[in-house]
Amino acid sequence: MPDAAPKTAPAAVAKPTGWDRPLAEINATIRKAEAGNAAALDEVKALLARTGTADILNGNVAREALRTLVAKHAGKNPVVREAVTRKLDEMRTELSGPSPSPLEKLLVERVLATWLHLHYLEAQYACRDSIPLTLATYYERSITSAQKRYVGAIKGLADVRKLALPVLQVNIARKQVNVAGASAAG
């Protein structure tokens, strides 16, 4: 079937704020830890204790999956890679809104991942002029499955936002009025 995701070599780490060691030294320590050096791994574990470091060291698996899909779609074309990355950033901003909850942030990432995967599969399928029936069936099933996951991610985000709506109860004399309204963030 289609090519498996490429194994990528770890990228050099961008120096996070608050780290007092030179970037070259941090990268050297990381490479030693990756090679199995126990002392270097202990140093990396100490670095990981700082908030946000896991993301810098590719610990955000969802973002890594998105990055891999973008790289797979763009191939060697840096313009396509940048355009798709920018589109994902724009969608992330639009879907997240002004003050998303941690759960909303996770669900927005899921919507982005499923959106990209669905459209990547559709582009791959559309580029084929003539393919064997087994491969066509594979793509059809994959696209259908990706569509279901995409719609499910959208519904999940919508459900979480519905649950976050404040409910206002007003009692006037003997009549009770319940009003559900949009939240300040929505």
Summarize the structure.
62% of the residues lie in helices and 6% in strands.
Task: Explain this structure.
- With 186 residues, the protein is mainly alpha-helical.
- The protein folds into two domains: 1-59, no CATH class; 66-186.
- Helices cover 62% and strands 6% of the residues.
- It is built from seven helices and two strands.
- The chain has a two-stranded antiparallel sheet.
- A hairpin with a 2-residue loop joins strand 1 (167-172) and strand 2 (175-180).
**Helix amount:** 55-70%
> Whole-number radius of gyration?
22 Å
The 3D shape can be described as flat
The number of helical runs is 7
Task: Tally the beta strands.
Answer: 2
Distance between the termini: 43 Å
Biggest pleated-sheet summary? 2 strands, antiparallel
Going by helix content, strand content and strand pairing, the class is mainly alpha
How much of the residues is beta strand, in percent? Answer: 5-15%
The domain count comes to: 2
What multimeric state do the chains show? single chain
Mean pLDDT rating: 85
What is the chain-wise order of helices and strands? HHHHHHHEE
Runs with pLDDT <50, length 5+? none
Strand arrangement, major sheet: 1-2
